[in-house]
Amino acid sequence: MRKMRFLLLLVVISVALTAGFAQAQSPTVIKIASQTPLSGPQSVLGISMRNAVELAIEQLSGPLAELGYTIEYVPFDDQATPAVGVSNAQIIVNDPAIMGVIGHLNSGVAIPASEVYNDNNLVMISPANTNPLITDRGLPTVNRVCGRDDLQGPTGARFVAEELGVETVYILHDTTAYGQGVAEFFRQEAEALGLTVLGFEGTEEMSNFDGILQPILAQEPEAIYFGGIYSQMGVFLRQARAAGFDGYFVGPDGTDSSEFAELAGDAAIGTYYTSVAGPASIYPNAAQFIEDYTARFEVPPQPFAAQSYDATAILLLAIEKVVADGTAPTREAIAEAVRATEGYEGLTGTITFDDNGDPEVGLYYVLRVVSADPAEWSNNELLATLEIPSPLMMAGM
Amino acid sequence: MTTASASPSTNSWSAFRTWLTQPLVMGAMVIGYVALSILILISLDRTSLWYPAANICAFPLFVLSPIIVLLSPLPARLKLTIMLALIVVVTPIIGLTNTTYLELAIQISIFAGLALGLNIVVGFAGLLDLGYIAFFAVGAYLWAMFTSPAPTIFQINGWLVPDWAFFIFLIIGVVLAGIVGIMLGLPVLRLRGDYLAIVTLGFGEMIKIIARNADQPANLTNGAQGLHGIGRPPLPGFAVDFTNGLSGLFSIPLSNPETVARQLMFYFLGIGILFIVILVARRLEDSAIGRAWTAIREDETAAIAMGVPLVRMKLMAFASGASFAGAIGVLFAAKQTFIDPKSFELMQSITILAMVIVGGIGGIRGVLLGAIVVTLLDLHILKNLSLQLNALRNVNFVIPIIDYPIRNWPSQLEPSKYQPFVFGLILVIMMIFRPAGLLPEPRRKMELMEARGEDSGDDDDTDMPAPAAPKRQPAPSGD
Amino acid sequence: MTSQTLTPPGAAGYTVSKGLLPALRATWVYRFVLFPIGQILVFIAAAAVVMTILSYILAFFVPEPRANIVLADQIAKQLPGMIISGISIGFVYSMVALGYTLVYGVLKFINFAHSEIFMIGSVAGFEVMTRISASGAIGAWNPVILILVIVVTAMLISGLVAVVVERVAYRPLRGAPRLVPLITAIGVSFVLIDSTRGLMAITRNDFNLTYPTNDPALTWLTTPINVVINGASVGGFNIGGTAYTTIIADSAEVSGFEISGTPISEYYYGGVTIGGRDLRANQIEVNGARPDEILIAGQNLRDIQRAANVVNVRVTSMIIVISAVLMLLALNYFVNGTKMGRGIRAVSQDQSTAGLMGVNVNRMISLTFFIGGAFGGAAGALFGLNVGTVTPYVGFIPGLKAFTAAVLGGIGNVTGALLGGLTLGMVESFLNGILVYFPAFGQRYTDVFAFSVLILILIFRPSGILGERVDEKV
């Protein structure tokens, strides 16, 4: 009987909600969805990406409002889990008002989810997936504004070999598709350049690196390259320095967060990292972004926040282009408009998509941490800027 | 809790109740319920502000309808007809209107199959297995390795198989996972209870670590990069026509009929496998093997004394539970087209265990219900709750009576960030108020009451069990 | 010889065999101080010796697993480091494992939420230390009192949370099949993780919680103690974050030398730069010379460092070991030497009989949860202090390992938890140190091997190393 009553209640509620409250949304509402991990250990990054998208919509949807469109934002939590990401993707493609997706953080989630988007002509712009496979599948709706692991890793290796002049390097990674991917490309290039790779290890350990450090200390590499995210690297570096490691420490763009300085403390100083995001010191827009973001959310932006902002901006511009002449927006048209993006001046550089959805020319920066104070993060010293065309462009040249 | 029956209420009420229990009335009510739930679901307005909240209620109502039919006191043939119609006809049509439902239905069938498999090990044989997802991973990787274009040794050596081999691999998955199950079973035969739990947990972690690292020295699994582009069973030619016909018949516009047709195919595959799993599980339960498992579960020593072949029976439990997971793993890989080690976390094992226990350990209907409830909770209800709040926030909704603008809610406390919290809370409350599960299996309830001692007279349907007096535990013999 | 679930040897009722110094054996000091300490030392030594021997056996069979790597040499180099790291993480595992084992002892159920109790301890420790540091007077605190305040607060908070969890989530389920509280515990885990995360998100806007060990007033905590192996040491200044107190190269003391007129002891990392590069990250460039070109007493600086097998013992590791030993002594006394401890033991043997004998069963169970939780909390705070950064998700892995340790030693057995923790810590540390040299495996397989060890032990001793055989009553 109780079950019956419970079900009856559900019936009443759903009838009431469908019929009674039918407060329909106007057809001029365009929704933008994002999928990032909002819970779980990676949520620091995911939430920051989500915030950046929200900020971009708040700041940049003015022109669309003039055209009579309201932009709404729908953030999803993919929990860094492929199954959840795919099931969210199903919800997203079934909401006819959603015209574009910003996401994901994890390539492992992005790859299966983007198949669903692509099946429904929904455009996805990835701010963070550096795995080559994201765009190498050649899906017409999948784009990214960030660099690629197969270009970033070698950049780091060349810097280590040529600028720092070391001969031995120890490579660590975090066993994720991102970390291992970039570390693998680093290793290939490093070996090609004649460096001795003393070890290539993956670890999921997030806090206690005592055991992992012993063989590193015994082999005394001149440099450690860590393919991973700052939350792990910062803790590792602090412990490595405390245990007596005195070589160089080099990381990929996962290092690029003020939180890294906070986690590693004094040990952070002198860390080298490659990045795909323009440092605020030379991009005035980026400095403004950091300021706005911090004012709005009371925390500094994390890595991939600037890219998320750029991705959203590109999406908004594409929507604008489609609806400018009064036509109703369709997913196909917006996807085409996004792919046709040319010379967009963003926080992280100028973006023109190639036929695979990669930026035609990727900018890769090498930076050095100068202060243990997180507030000083944006003043990190820029050592080199490299312009590297995407593989598709390279093949065309 | 005071129910109407507890109070000496008016005669008319009890007469009404008796009238309600008449088969005809009951049948009419059930059919009415099913019809109503379908009606609500198809009349949902997707542009409504309150769509997510309505959706939260509506879809579970519909998904529960087969279970309601199953439990209702209708003639068996009628029950079967209604259920068949619901699953084979109604669900695909509803799925066409909104492929989210189709995806949910596929996920439910996958998880229900897994939960039933785990139920054989944990529910029937009483062996606590915390690494069940490992067998699922074996099946998924088996199919993925043989079809993914990733640079594995299979791809390099040209050992890839065509897509139609899917059906053969379903069977290979069953066999392989069964063998792995026996391999795990052999060393842990002597272990009981908690020791078994930790060893199986360790085993699950080991499989994941191996999957993550077997890209060196020979690339078997492509490591953390995962395997992409996994083959899907070929879409039969009539499927697209069928989908188009269906969409034409009900005038549901489809943007991409082929995608929907493929989803439908996976739905029917999932349901088909689930059906076979249910059938096998039922046969097992009622067989001599099932009785031997019950004996082992209730008292291993006594079971040995009665001549139950312990080793064989335990291995059988591991193998049959594992083989279900193997087949479903193959299906999962094909549906997902991408798998990586992260798809097989300990968390998944625990979620499946939660399905078994929430539904009612040991009983097939209960486990099915548990799988539905937990999957919906995870993928549908909590998600839509977040969407609803987000929608309200977007229109700057103000809660009427207390005059509280939703927008003021701090963003650190957004519900979408606290899904695990709600999940955990529901698990705790469930277990405290209904420890035997939503749909307790009679024998289990008996065992539970036995453990409870003198409290056993209680109405099952009720309240928090009184803080039990200290019970005699199977004390270590010591000296 | 049989021993009760919660009764380690040396406890009351344990028949002391006649042997050496029977008079001493009967004394309080022996039972509650000497014997337990001896036991701990024996466990440490045994674990270390067994692992060392096994590594050398491996080195004998596979002398050169990789080009240019002589395994025996590497083992010799790493041995002290591996043993110290094994001991310190082993004690953390032991203390967490105690929580599992105590609860299992009285309730026969695995408290899966215990890893979150550990996490709460580490977060509480962070809160306390951050607050003290924010007051600016952390330098004025006596080190012992500072650590004591941090650890004791963490213990209290974790203990109380454990008691509340028991009261709310487990007590209503007492007597239910064992799977039911297991699921509740998993639910409680989620709730605890997310509430902590929510709390930290609101109060600190972040959940990567870094212990303020960077505070300049805490150099005593962060400056490692150098233990010098084979007679040489480099010291007196900081290179890349390593503090050295004296320089001894080839037994000749060379402290007080200068770079470009500045005494090297002033070159602490950070701030000081020579030729545009700072001392951090090994960038000492003196007149264009790279670090390996700097000569001290005719020897290359890098070579001196290499030859001087300096083992850094981190102060935090020492704090873990000392605190753990003290707490284990206290626990041993409490369980075996006090009336309340006797109550716990009684409940663990037979709840209903204990109840009939006038033991307040519910109170004893709450007490057990408090003690288990307090140990978990202390372990959490000490762990946090050692690793530097904790998050609401920090509990899972150590919790899993500690659970493994508890089962390894024999769940329900206090001494077993200690032995299990130390064994697991040592095995893990050695595997981490040695697997690197085998390219086919690598550190990634450490957990696989650790679990394999567990499975092997359980196959041959299904109830753990020290677990007694439980004959099922029919």
Concise account of the structure shown:
The complex is a heterotrimer of chains A (397), B (479) and C (474). By secondary structure, chain A is of the alpha/beta class.
Description:
The complex is a heterotrimer of chains A (397), B (479) and C (474). Chain A is α/β, with parallel strands linked by helices. Chain A has 15 helices and 14 strands. Chain A is globular. Chain B is mostly helical and 479 residues long. In chain B, 67% of the residues lie in helices and 1% in strands. Chain B has a two-stranded antiparallel ribbon with strand order 1-2. The longest helix of chain B has 31 residues, at 364-394. Chain B is globular and about 60 Å long. Mean pLDDT of chain B is 82; it is low at 1-6 and 454-479. Chain C has 474 residues and is mainly alpha-helical. In chain C, helix 5 (143-170) crosses helix 12 (361-387) and helix 13 crosses helix 14. Chain C starts with 21 loop residues before the first helix and ends in a 14-residue tail after the last helix. The relative contact order of chain C is 0.18. The chains are: A alpha/beta (397), B mainly alpha (479), C mainly alpha (474). Chains in contact: A-B, A-C, B-C. Chains B and C meet through helix 9, helix 13, helix 15, helix 17 and helix 18 of B and helix 6, helix 11, helix 13 and helix 15 of C.
